[in-house]
Amino acid sequence: MMGAEPARIPIFPLAGALLFPRAQLPLHIFEQRYRDMIRDAVARSGEIGMIQPVHDGENAPLHKVGCLGAIVGMEELEDGRFNIILEGVKRFRWIREAEVDTLYRQADVDLAAFDDSEPDALSAAMRSEVEREARAFGEALELEVDWDQVSRLDDETLVNAIAQVSPFDIGAKQALLEEKTLGGRAELVTQLMHFQRMAPGGAAADQTLQ
Which residue in 40, 18, 169, 161 sits closest to 91, CA to CA? Predict the structure, then answer.
């Protein structure tokens, strides 16, 4: 069976910034090339692709999985910068970089690479373990968290929010993004929180999980 035609999308490489389907990500847009990207996106599909670079540097190689996001909120500031809110649509797999004349990068991607329909609920035991480790991790980081409100989040929102805001390295965040199931992501994020909390230097240290 033949696969779907690749889709060409504008790409916003940003280390540490994860977007998941049905999750939201606020961004402040100040570089000229990304101002152009937002204006072009709004005039077309209203969507951009978030993806992590492998390392810092101009035109650094990019990871092979990202997430398409729809611009659901936008404020243009007087000096041309933007505040936007992206909502995750679906993950994609990188095929190739497109040769384009825009200042921002574009890529041909496979938008059918993942099943991003709404996931099954976590088991009660797994949900409890995620909340327990999140509380310990938050306390280790000395964060003020409304745990009553956290306990009311649905499973997907809880797991993805932890993945988005936790100070994990690029590789760990990428592994969370690429995990196929919510259950697998919940297990991995729990392991990462425990590892970073127990490692030398504590939860706030720059740890790398090999």
Answer: 18
